[in-house]
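Entry 14. Structure prediction run on the chain below.
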Amino acid sequence: MSTIERAEVFVASPGRNFVTLRITTSDGVTGLGDATLNGRELAVASYLRDHVVPLLIGRDPARIEDIWQFLYRGAYWRRGPVTMTAIAAVDVALWDIKGRVAGLPVYQLLGGRSRDAVMVYAHASGTDVPSLLDDVAKFRDLGYQAIRAQTGVPGLGGSYGVRKGEVYEPANSNLPDEQPWSTEAYLDFAPTYLRAVREKFGSAFHLLHDVHHRLTPIEAARFGKSVEDLRLFWMEDPTPAENQEAFRLIRQHTTTPIATGEILNSIWDVKDLITEQLIDYVRTTVVHAGGITHLRRIFDLAALYQVRTGSHGATDLSPISLAAAVHVDLTVPNFGIQEYMPHVEQTMQVFRTNVTLENGMLDLSDEPGLGVEYDEKAAERYPYDPKYLPVARRLDGSVHDW
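Output returned:
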């Protein structure tokens, strides 16, 4: 019987910080998992090295479900982003191994394709409305069928969602950058630039917007109602998602579709949102919600209540997570959309992936497992570089949700 012989944790910063787990079996088969938690990377690396890796040695890598339950139930201290990200890395690496052993891509092990390719959305942004419109035009020309639109609020420097150059990466300093925020200014301005996008480009593509947890439930309801005629694909994270009950109030006041879940880590965190149909899209992601095994549970529950998937997929997730997401997206019947940002050249020097983009759709080849390879030597050229996400402060100086 093949057993887990070695599990290695790599921390590198090829364009941004990533934590990678590589599991090797006694038969010499390797599997990769992403363990990246933006701004808390070393916490997950330590959790894996100090607490999880010793538990894996000698175990049967084919027993994915048993290992998942062992790491989740056996720790007693359950859930939370650090724990679930570490479990996800192990789980995805084991699915990668199972696919390589079987000679099949992971999506075949999950039941095969439900679709030919995976629709993604691009991230258009600007410092003002004209630059946002130029960015939307660029992505339309590239063939994207869905575009998220964000721009800076006049008078507020460093507002969320504005890309610097070709890459959007908000983690930008070795200590948190503190940025000003005004909800009143945002509520006045955001509907106007979303309306400008629709007026210029029409309704022949999906338009998305990220509120980023910054509104109270009644403020989010007001915002959703004000943009109903623009037919948004979704408004994302309209209010902090810890309080699932809060989404009931939003739902009572607007028909604008709601998406949330990227910072939530388990089926219990989204249970009420799904079963009471308080959201339209669940945005949990493979790396922060316990891997392929647990993400499928969440998506299967969502399918029963006509809630579709819309997994987080920014560049704070490595190409391993992107590939794992596409494998899942191809198979689930209730797929909605996949977030996508292209990784920078340095990242792709370290990770070789078989994921391809064409006309706003992702697909992958039929390589066994995930179809991703990790270049350890290339990673050594990019040592860990501490970076933190910004912190938002209201104009009176108090801390606000970022």
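The chain has a mean pLDDT of 95.
Filed with the rest of this week's runs.
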